[in-house]
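thread: overnight batch results

M.L. [08:02]
morning all. the overnight job finished for the chain we discussed friday. pasting input first so we're all looking at the same thing
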Amino acid sequence: MKRLLTSLVMLLLLVGQAAAQSLDCPAIAQRLLEAAREACPSVEVNQACYAAGDLTPEPRENIRLRFADPGDQVSLSALKGLSSAGYDAQAEALGLAILNVRAGLPDGGLTMLLVGDARLENQSQATDAFIPVTVTVKETQGANLRAEPSDTAALVGSLSFGAAFQAVQRTEDAAWLRVVSGEVSGWVSTALVDPAADVMLLSTTLPSLDESLPLYGPMQTFRFRSAQADAGCPGLPDSGLLVQTPEGQAVELVVNNIPWQIAGTIWFQTTTEGATVTQVLEGSIQPVPAAESFDAVTQFTFGFQGAEVFIQPDGEYNFARARYQPLPLLPREFELPFSLGGVIFPFTPGTGFLQGIGADGPCTAAWTVDVNLRAGPGTNYPIRRGVPGGFYGQPDARAVGSDGEIWWRLVEGVWVAANLTAAGGNCGAIPLVAPPPIPVN
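M.L. [08:03]
and the structure it wrote out:
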């Protein structure tokens, strides 16, 4: 009892000071979200909105645009590229743009959030009016593909019964559709195909392109790069690109020259070597043509080794950092799935691991026995995950538990008993906080 009272006195003395020290960054993050909501309450399809911080647009040739202040919106087809700036501590600002990308969807679009030190390069030449419609050949004898929208035009190919293709253009009366079949494009009679959406969505004209058809709308195919782990202020988001599709709809995106089918919320970042780190926050993503599907909680890296594509599974996504992404700005709410990615890390016991951390190094709590990570500081909180020995975490807070013992908070909602760990680094600087409420069953 004496130990518990002493711990509670320590808590009362330090919690106020600790709270003041820890509120600055979360408060900045909250102001960023509120400013972005105010600047961009809604974004039209195929538009980008200036939400916050420092953004630099790169217009296409011979196009003038205004995109300099929060609230400004610009057509995606007018952009050759868009860059955002990382966290500016003096201004307490972070670059943030909100994009509504048609991406072939007949109704609405998908949402992109460009955050921090990042850049998007639009690789589509299509106009805002462009949208493809998938059509399936319904004529059992197949269908002819012609050079012009006429029964007497030259044949350029044939389409088999049941085959699906993208229609990219229509005649004024919609009697003929221009479709793409491999490297060949041509016209097919609308009467011979079954469209997946209203063909009147198709444009009657196509932009002038460099020997290619606009199979992807603005920002549906893009190059992207970002920094990693660069928040600069605990509680602020790292740089990257958040993508969210409408509920129940799959969208094809070409990211850094590799096509993907996405149905959910995905967080992209890039490495200094040019690979793309992909974290699945909800839903799924798979390469096109279909191969392995990556579902919620997973992380993988993709890119090129020479001319060959590689896709490398990385395990669980970084829950510790994903929590600070501007998820409230996305149109669909979802519960961020729990993982230990970015929360705990393996080490080899008996190698002097903790001794190698300097006195001014980050506080590190390591354990060599099995432990239960809990939702709060005490055994009366739910177990989040049982973990074997040989792991460590870097606490961001500590609290006196319901059992009178000190507990380390590894991230919000994940705690480990300090008496089951050994610590190294500057753990004296870790703030003492009030325990969260004990859940009521």
